[in-house]
Amino acid sequence: MTRFFASEFFFNYTRNWSAIIGSALMFAFAFAVLVGPFLVAQNPYDIASLDLMDSYKPPMWLEGGDPRFPFGTDGQGRDVWASILYGARISLFIGLAAMCASCFIGTFLGLVAGFYGGILDSIIMRIADIQLSFPSILIALFLMSAVGTGIDKVLIALTAVGWVVYARTVRGSTLSEKQKEYVQAAKVAGLPNHKIIRKHILPNVLTPLIVIATIQVGTFVLIEASLSFLGVGVPITQPSLGLLIKNGFDVLFSGLWWTSVFPGLAIMMLVFGINLFGDFLRDELNPRLK
Amino acid sequence: MFGYLVKRLLQMTLVLWIVSVIVFLMMSFTGDPVFMVVPVDATDAEIAQARRLLGLDQPMPVQYWRFLVSLVQGDFGYSYVFRQPAMTLIMERLPATVEMVLVAMVFALVISIPLGVYAGANPESKISRFIMAGSLLGISLPGFWVGMVLIYLFAVQWGIFPSSGRGDTAEFFGLRISLLTGDGWHHIVLPAITLSLATTAILLRMTRAGMMEVGRQDFMKFAKAKGVSRRDVLYRHGLKNAIIPVVTIFGLQLGDLIAFATITETIFSWPGMGKLLIDSIYRADRPVIVVYLMLVALIFVVINFIVDLVYTLIDPRISLK
Predict the structure, then answer these.
(1) What ipTM score was computed for the predicted complex, to two decimals?
(2) Is the minimum CB–CB distance between A18 and chain B shorter than 8 Å?
(3) Which of A217, B181, B220, B268 is most buried (CB neighbours < 10 A)?
C-alpha cells in the first residue's frame, strides 16, 4: 500500500484535478448505489409503500414541494430520489457486467487470433471489421428488437457489441509480444501453447485494456439508457435510469420536468466521472506520452 | 486503381451479403410473422394457406434463397401494417432523415473545427480547458435527454421552437424537403442540435489532438518564421495536416448520426425512417425493418468507401492498394 502512495501514478493523480473530480464522482456514485437504498424510506418497487396522494409533487424547494421527497415524485407517488438510487443500481450493474463479459470474450478471441493466426484469425478479424463499420447502438437496437426486452438480453446485446475493441487491441499486442524472446524461450522450454498464452502473453497485453474497460462502462450505461428509452431495453418492472427518463418524458409536456431531468443528471454525473478518470488513465498508462 | 476499385466492390458486396444472412437469421428467430397477416379469428386452414403464400412452409435455405433473390430485385414485400411496399415507405421518409443528419453534421463541423483548432493551438489557456471540459460533458450526456430538456425549455416553457414534426415542406425534383421553407428550418433547429451534440464533441477532440500533434512539426515553425499570419499558419498549414484522422472519424460519425437519428426522431416525432424503424420494431413489421437495415448497411458501406477515396485526395502520401 505504501508503495502505491509513493508511486508516480499516485503523485500524478494528486496533481490532476480532472482525475480527482472524476474519481470522486465515480466513488460518490458507487457509494450511492451500494448504500443509498438503505437510506431512503421508500422502496419504489413496493407498491404498498406508495401513496397516490403523493403523486406529482415538485422538488422540495419549489412551491408545493414536500421535504420527504427532495426531488419530487412521479405519477404513482414514487419518490424520484429513491427511484434514481434503485435505477442507478440496474444501470451500473448492466454497464459493469457487460464490460466484464465483453472484456473476457474479446481478450480470449484476441489472444487466439493473434497467437495462432491463420484462418481463425481471418474469421475473427473479418467479423470485427464488419461489426466496426456499423454503429454499436444500431447493432444493439437490432439485436434487442430480435430477442425482446430483459436485463439478460441487454447484457447479451451489449456484449455482442463490445467484444470487438478488446479483440482488436489484444490481437495487436499479442502479435508483437509473440515475437519477443521470452515467448520464444518459453516455447523452447517446451511449455504448451495454452500455458504460454495464459502465463506469459496475457499479463503483458492487459494494460491498454484498463482504459478501454473504464470508458466502456460509461458507453454501455449510455447505450442501455438509449435502448430503454426506446422501449427495447430493461422491462418496466426493473427500471434503469434510461427507463425513468422515458417514463418522465411521457409527462414532460404537462410541465412535470423533474421526473425525467434528475435521472438524466444522474447518468451525466456517472458517465462524466468515468470519462474524466478514463482520460487521466489513458495519459498515465500510455508510455508514448511519457 | 482499377484493380483496387474492383477489390473494394467485391468486399462491399461480401459485407452486404453477410448482413443479409444475419438479418435473415435474426428475423427468423423473432416470432411467426404469419400472425401479422392473418385475422385474429383465422382458422387453421387459413393460417396454413397464409403460411404457404408467404413461403414460410419451405425449409430455411429455400426461404433464404427467395429472400436474397427478392432483395437483389429490390422487392422487399409489403409492410404488414401499412399494406404498402416497404421500400416505398422507407424511401418516402429517407429525405427527412438525410436532411436532419446533414444539418446536424453542418452544425457539428461549424462549431467543432474552430474550437478544436483554438484548443489545439493554445492547450494551456483557460478557454481551452473550458472547451475541453465542455466537450467531455458532450460525450457524457445521453443525447435523448438533451433533446428532452431542449423541448422542455424552448417548446414547453418559452415557446420559441416547435416541439415536434417537420413543418412545411416544399417540392424539389419530386422530393419533399423542409429546408426550403422558413417553417421547416424552424422545426429542424432543435432536433439537429440534439443530434449534433455528441458528434461535435468527438470531432472537436479529434481536431484538437491533430492540431497538437501538428503544432510540434518543423513546417509550422517555418511557416511562422517566414511571416505567415497566425490564422494562415493554423488553418492553411496546420489544419490541412491535422484533418486526416478527422476525415475517418467524420465518416464513422455520419453513420452514428444516422443511427442516433432513430432516437432523435422518436423524441421530436420527426417523420423520418428512424422513427419508422422504431415504430416497426414495436409492431414487428418485419419487411420494413429488413429494408431499413439493408439500406443503412448499403449507406455505411458506401460512406466507408468514399472516406477511403477522400483520404488519397487529402494526403497524396497514401496510395490505394
Answers:
(1) 0.83
(2) yes
(3) B268
